[in-house]
Sequence to fold (183 residues):
Amino acid sequence: MFGVVDPVTGIWNSKFINALVGQEANRAVRYHRPLSVLVVELDHAEHIDKELGHIQLEGLLREISERLGMSIRDTDTVAFLDADGPPHFAIVLPETNEQGATLAADKIRRGIAAHDFATGGNWQRITVSCGAATIGMMPTGEVEAGLMNRREYTGNLLREAYQALEAGRSAGTNRTSVGAFRS
Fold:
């Protein structure tokens, strides 16, 4: 497990999740099944980072990781993406279409917003925003699985989730925005 688990949060890291998204994307394309990826970002991260000490911030990230893990199915996977910028988490949702991704993201947002975090003070209640990207079910013959490049596809799917997140940011915080992969 060394090298694929984030030492602060105790969940999978970006190296692991990138490989998993690639594998799941290939499976989704090959078998014409839906796949969704969520990118979850802590709202007001810059203010939280300034006001909380390093140890308290790490505790908050661990607590968020636990809440995310409790909000997803056993078949889903959560990972910590960024250690340097605003904290981002990724969640891989196999066999999940756009509607299911939206429901999962909304469940996550509500669960985080309703939880009393151990940080106390101004940041006892926090919110997150979610961006989602989905590979829809493709009719047989529409896309040849052999034509998809795994690394290119993985990058596009995660990038689409990030782009959906950023697009939703212009409308405010504590929101879910959805995009769809376009090959």
Q: What stands out?
A: The chain has one domain: 14-180.
